[in-house]
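To whoever is on call:

I kicked off a structure prediction for a single chain this morning and the downstream step that reads the tokens threw a length-mismatch warning. I double-checked the sequence; it's 88 residues and nothing unusual in it as far as I can see. Pasting both halves so you can look.
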Amino acid sequence: MAVNPSFSGALSGLARALVQHGRLQQGIAEELSVQARNSATGFIEQLVAKGRMSTLELAEFASQIFGPDTLTVLAAVGDAIWRTPRRR
């Protein structure tokens, strides 16, 4: 699935890959990206927090698309979620 270039904000590589491989609708990817920017969190945190993918699903997808083994990606995903600064 092609990504529509009309979205004014840039999708991350992960968000773009999820859309291109049919794992996430572009509108949802854009919405999660905007929410991540507005709340000073990451796209991964928004993706998992909103229940769009589990950390394991995300790790498996990323390892298939980007190459690292699933456990390495799962560790990075977990680290990204727990280290994201939160506004209070």
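Update from on-call: the warning came from a stale cache, not from the record. Cleared it. Sanity check on the structure: Residues 13-83 form one domain.
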